From TrEMBL:
GO terms for cellular component: external side of plasma membrane. The keyword Disulfide bond applies. Residues 1-59, 77-168, 177-253 form the Ig-like domain. InterPro entries: Ig-like_dom, Ig-like_dom_sf, Ig-like_fold, Ig_Fc_receptor, Ig_sub. This is Ig-like domain-containing protein. It comes from Poecilia formosa (Amazon molly). GO terms for biological process: cell surface receptor signaling pathway; immune response. GO terms for molecular function: transmembrane signaling receptor activity. Keywords: Disulfide bond, Membrane, Signal, Transmembrane, Transmembrane helix. SMART domains: IG (SM00409). PANTHER family: FC RECEPTOR-LIKE PROTEIN 4 (PTHR11481:SF64), IMMUNOGLOBULIN FC RECEPTOR (PTHR11481). It comes from the Eukaryota. The chain crosses the membrane at residues 263-287.
């Protein structure tokens, strides 16, 4: 006889379920006997399921008063990995879904063959997609994704790889913030403090805020931001929350007036004239 097994993967992990088959050519109505890890299983069927390990196995057939020879004793190609686990690896080129678009995730298994890929979003126990190995998963929903390989099933247990690292995918929504600013008087002088506000309308989310000054991140999570006015500075903002980003606002540039000596003298003269004018009115009112 010849012993074959299914699945006939190139590497099998301890604990996987494998079905052995004793093939005898010539005649029929054989009764099969198995010897697995030095333990006999008489009056068995042509096929027997075992849990994979490094042991040896063989079979013999009998009928009436005759019997075959024992088959060669073989062992399964059991993986010698110390962890007895294959590893799933996820790769991605983008982690932010553009407005109305999608991103592509890929998942592969480092050892063995016959794997199917189980994809998870948020819940690590409930797959949202099952695909073939080295396939792709095109997504348009934000969240935390991971993957792992699995093989077997079809009435038997599924043997899983280790789970990949988690990848956080953000989604850009079509909301666009607007920057407004508050100041006590129209001219803004260099160095003055101005309060900017990032206004987001719609979305129904508790937004956190990101600010950029001259295309550089400016740490702040508040809707309002106090800045020291400088000519030529550009500001923009966006919101983020629940794995979503708004679009960036349009750039805001403030018109800043430099406080020259002549302008300072003019302002002082205006202030002094105002004080003098009020003083004259008070004196006139007092005496008349």
């Amino acid at each position: 006889p010849t012993v074959t097994w299914k699945p006939d993967w190139s590497e099998i992990f301890r604990g996987e379920t494998v079905t052995l088959r004793c093939e005898i050519r010539g005649g029929a109505e054989w009764t099969y006997e198995w010897r697995i890890n030095d333990q006999d299983y008489p009056a068995s069927s042509e096929s027997i399921s075992i849990t994979a390990d490094s042991g040896r196995f063989g079979c013999i057939g009998t009928r009436n008063d005759e019997s075959t020879q024992w088959s060669d004793f073989n062992s399964l190609p059991v993986c010698k990995s110390a962890t007895n686990k294959a590893r799933a690896t996820m790769t991605e080129r983008q982690t932010i879904i553009p407005a109305g678009g999608s991103v592509t995730l890929r998942c592969s298994v480092d050892i063995g063959d016959g794997w199917r890929i189980y994809w998870f979003r948020q819940d690590p126990d409930q797959p949202v997609e099952i695909s073939e190995p080295d396939g792709v998963f095109i997504i348009s929903d934000e969240g935390v994704y991971s993957c792992r390989g699995g093989r077997g099933g079809r009435g038997g247990p599924v043997f899983y790889t280790e789970t990949s690292r988690e990848v956080t995918i953000w989604k850009t929504v079509s909301i666009k913030p607007t920057i407004t600013w508050k100041h006590n008087w129209p001219p803004i002088f260099s160095g003055e403090t101005v309060t900017l506000r990032c206004e987001i309308r719609g979305g129904g989310s508790q937004w956190m805020y990101e600010w950029e000054i001259n295309d550089r991140n400016s740490p702040s999570f508040d809707e309002y931001k106090n800045i020291s006015a400088r000519n030529g500075d550009r500001f923009r903002c966006r919101g983020r929350g629940n794995y979503q980003f708004t679009q960036w606002s349009d750039d805001l540039s403030l018109t800043v007036t430099r406080l020259s000596v002549n302008l300072l003298i003019t302002i002082l003269v205006v202030i002094l004239l105002s004080i003098l004018h009020n003083t004259i009115i008070l004196i006139f009112t007092y005496f008349y």
